Amino acid sequence: MKSLVFHFSEAYREEGFLCWLQEAQVLDFTGLEGCCCYCDAQARKKLEEAFPKPLPRLRWLDSGDYHYLSHLLALQETMPFHLVLLDNHPDNQDPAFEGVLSCGSWVKEMQEGNLWVRDVITIGPEGCGNEIPQEWLEKRRGDRVYVSLDKDIMDKAYARTDWTQGGHALEDVKKELGKLAEAMEIVAVDICGELAPSKGATPEDLRINRETNMELFHCLTNLLK
Fold first, then answer.
1. Could you tell me the pTM of the whole model?
2. N or C: which terminus of the chain carries fewer CB neighbours within 10 A?
3. What is the pLDDT of residues 34-51, one digit of tens each?
């Protein structure tokens, strides 16, 4: 399966995941200013102009600092969809700076600025539940769904990030993805949550993230057929 890889840090290369990944289209944004955690207008323009057409359905976003890309990528959808967010944080805060998209506000901006979004369900943060309710799935059976996964939902045995992490196992995440694929049409999946050596990643951190990415790739290759 073809993947779209956003290269902001050296995380995917240092993990060895990038050289393992097959049919990857890499967008190299190393050195791009105004894009870490907050995305200013100039950076947003450069990012959006680089999006390939058509977009691959599997997208790797680098660290959680760039999770706002989910909003920009979902703006390319032209039909109604639901958003399922698997994350240890809800990402629905008010932006700290008016008009500036951020990794903590993108869900709120998606709900307010994307007319194709029908509803949003978040799994992982306190008060949001740890799995997708079966009733929610049944009521939306056959509908289109956009999935955004931040690996910080997982325990440190399965992912190493620079954000506070939850307690999900990799198998828990794969189970939720499987439930979605069985009930709905997954139109796209994006994944973030890497940790680069420049932010303190050890060889063990890189190994764990690489192995989890490989497992997710195999899982999603089967689910997105």
1. 0.96
2. C
3. 999 999 999 999 999 999
